[in-house]
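User: Sequence recovery, please. Input:
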């Protein structure tokens, strides 16, 4: 394993991160320290984070509606950040539990308009503090790449699903010189022993989602069990 310190932009977030490049092909921030608390203050300024632009919000709402089952479903949003996607799912009639390690991210999620069926918990996305609860959907956007053991996390998330549940994973590979992220093929390989069916949607070509044209790899996988 080779440790690399670099400064990079991931989905619009500039990070100073100590990466660990593993021999398995994962390109994640395996050992941190990504200071997510420090990112929280202006996290929502990025169009796809804050979903403040009506067109960007509508584009994510449309995708989400296609990825989620009929409402109301129990949705667990892991690494929920400022809760934008959680609240979008709640707006669509789902019961949402968001989990994040960052107190500052959670503070912003909880400060967003009340009235939705959403709760936000502090905890590790890899081992969320949900006790024996089970969910129809585990939703994870731009988080798996940052976990030290993506394979272990996926195994655990699979165990949190009800029968016929699904994982909705939105990931990508950012940067060119020292890319970080999880390539589609790698994620599909990790999912293969865990799920019955996977559906991949390429997201790079849809500028409405990002508020700009992008040319790196961005995708969603809906994996049903
Ligand atoms: C790039 S942000 C994505 C936030 C949100 N999912 C979204 O798409 O807007 C990554 C988030 O994952 C959280 N995170 C990173 N590692 C985590 C872990 N091990 N457990 C819980 N949250 C984690 C960070 O605090 C941050 O809020």
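Assistant: Recovered sequence (225 residues):
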């Amino acid at each position: 394993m080779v440790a690399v310190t670099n400064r990079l932009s991931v989905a619009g977030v500039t990070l100073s991160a100590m990466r660990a490049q593993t021999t398995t092909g994962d390109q994640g921030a395996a050992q941190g320290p990504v200071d997510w608390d420090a990112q929280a203050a202006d996290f929502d300024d990025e169009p796809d984070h804050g979903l403040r632009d009506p067109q960007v919000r509508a584009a994510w709402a449309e995708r989400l509606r296609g990825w989620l089952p009929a409402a109301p479903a129990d949705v667990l949003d892991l690494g929920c950040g400022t809760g934008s996607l959680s609240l979008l799912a709640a707006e669509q009639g789902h019961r949402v539990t968001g989990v994040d390690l960052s107190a500052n991210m959670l503070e912003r999620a909880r400060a967003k308009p009340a009235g939705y069926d959403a709760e936000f918990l502090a905890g590790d996305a890899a081992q969320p503090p949900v006790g024996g609860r089970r969910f129809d959907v585990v939703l994870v956007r731009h988080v798996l790449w940052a976990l030290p053991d993506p394979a272990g996390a996926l195994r655990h998330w699979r165990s949190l699903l009800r029968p016929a549940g699904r994982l909705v994973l939105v990931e990508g590979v950012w940067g060119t010189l020292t890319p970080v992220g999880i390539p589609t093929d790698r994620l599909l390989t990790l999912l293969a022993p865990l799920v019955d069916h996977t559906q991949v949607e390429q997201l790079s070509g849809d500028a409405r989602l990002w508020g700009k044209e992008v040319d790196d790899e961005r995708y969603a996988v809906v994996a049903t069990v």
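The radius of gyration is 16 Å.
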